[in-house]
Design brief:
By secondary structure, the protein is of the alpha/beta class. It folds into two domains: about 180 residues, Glycogen Phosphorylase B (Rossmann fold, 3-Layer(aba) Sandwich), CATH 3.40.50.2000; about 180 residues, Rossmann fold (3-Layer(aba) Sandwich), CATH 3.40.50.2000. The chain is built from 16 helices and 13 strands. Helix 3 packs across helix 16. It is globular and about 100 Å long. The N terminus is likely disordered.
């Protein structure tokens, strides 16, 4: 019998054998796909569980130590409430490192791209910050941060940020009702879903008020004029620098110039030129203090443009201001989207006179009349009513709102795993059945 006769299989038996082999092969493929889906599902669940286990409950991002006055009163409230916080700062010498907190963990995350790298991969339930332009430039939303909460640097229009400055935040701590109106206007214009907010007031103004209440009276001194501009092309120093400083020196009063901190980075050449030109401290004092309390306390009048310091000076120190005609260009700001004039400029006439080309040569008379004019007292009270709610309660209200948002996120997360598990299970079963 030849080998071919030995290996011969009749057609019926061969068909049956091939059917069995294909059946075994199909079962193997089916089992492999089922195992793959199960492992993928378990791996995904384990990964999500690990992410949740390592998630920071509440993180705070501070881009520079100059904003410590905003965060300190709120951190103190968290400490009282024994709420654990991770404070991420881009200042190596941030004052937080000198505080003896038990529940606040401070971490230096570097500056620039190094800081953004940390923030862009952050794993936290809530992140609280004063920094605008989230998800606009280098600072991107992390997929593992559930809620971003914003608080402003100063008590003024929230539309005074650069374009799209607050579009990607999820919630806001606000100081007055007018900011709510502005947020809702921008949301409607840009198709953004309405976001949560709480009107809490201004924590750092509350603390400033406490310091004034506890401070010794300012001793008799020569009349002191503080020039405190904002930065940018519309700011005082950019538009009127030399001419205005010369006019102020001619009054014979003590002159203090306090540039906006951002000017030292964005307008370095211009500032260096002015500081070099006016380098006699008996005529001009250049103030760079991180804390502006002392310089505001010893000044009798403030000249500014649209800087938030005007409102600190008027509302907390209850002193008059002179504002300048800077021909503010709203084009780079969110204010350009709103037809009405920003409140920041509407309220100025109630707080003091305007300095322009027509009265710049008589600046001494303008200063004297403004300090002695009692009609601006009512304007300062109106300003407080517009933008500074819940005086004395702002820090506690802010901390409570942040904790509330954290609890909302945590509650949502606690119910999500079972829902996600069911969805993934159904998806896995469907894929297996279709194998």
């Amino acid at each position: 019998m030849g080998i071919f006769n030995v290996l011969y299989i009749d057609p019926g038996t061969g068909g049956m054998l091939f059917t069995v082999l294909f059946g075994i092969f199909g079962v193997a493929i089916f089992s492999f796909r089922a195992l793959f889906m199960k492992l993928k599902f378990l791996s995904s669940s384990d990964k999500n569980a690990k992410i949740n286990d390592q998630k920071i409950p509440i993180a705070i991002h501070c881009e520079n130590k100059r904003y410590w006055n905003i965060f300190e009163p709120i951190l103190d409230e968290f400490e009282k409430k024994q709420q654990k916080i991770v404070y991420l700062t881009s200042s190596e010498d941030d004052p937080v490192f000198k505080k003896d907190y038990k529940y606040i963990t401070a971490e230096y995350i570097g500056e620039g791209n190094k800081a953004f790298s940390r923030l862009n991969l952050l794993n936290a339930s809530v992140l609280f910050s004063t920094t605008p332009s989230l998800d606009v430039f280098q600072w991107k939303r992390s997929k593992n941060v559930d809620c971003y909460i914003h608080i402003m640097h100063a008590a003024k229009d929230i539309t005074m940020y650069r374009m799209y400055g607050t579009d990607h935040y999820d919630a806001f701590i606000l100081s007055g009702e007018l900011q709510v109106k502005q947020i809702r206007q921008l949301e409607e214009m840009r198709g953004i879903k309405p976001r949560d907010y709480e009107i809490c007031g201004v924590p750092y103004l509350d603390e400033m008020k406490k310091r004034i209440d506890n401070a010794d009276p300012v001793p008799p001194h020569e009349r002191t004029v503080l020039l405190a501009p904002s930065w940018g092309e519309s700011g005082i120093l950019s538009r009127f620098g030399d001419k205005l400083i010369d006019s102020l020196i001619s009054t014979g009063y003590k002159i203090i110039v306090r540039p906006h901190p951002q000017s030292f980075a964005s307008e370095k050449d211009m500032l260096e030129r002015l500081m070099s030109k006016y380098n006699d401290p008996s005529k001009v004092e250049w103030n760079k203090d991180t804390d502006n309390f002392d310089v505001l306390m010893r000044s009798d009048i403030l000249i500014s443009d649209y800087s938030g310091v005007m409102f600190e000076f008027a509302m907390v120190f209850d002193k008059p201001i002179i504002y300048t005609d800077t021909r503010f260009d709203p084009a780079p700001y969110d204010a350009d989207w709103i037809e009405e004039t920003p409140w920041t400029f509407q309220i100025l006439a109630d707080l003091g006179p305007k300095l322009d080309e027509s009265n710049a040569d008589n600046i001494k008379e303008l200063i004297d009349n403004c300090i002695e004019d009692k009609s601006y007292l009512a304007g300062r009270e109106k300003c407080r009513n517009d933008i500074w709610a819940h005086i004395g309660e702002s820090a506690e209200r802010s901390a409570d709102f942040i904790i509330k948002k954290y609890k909302e996120v945590a509650a949502k997360k606690s119910s999500a795993p079972s829902e996600n598990k069911n969805k993934k299970h159904k998806k896995a079963v469907k894929a297996v059945k279709g194998a």
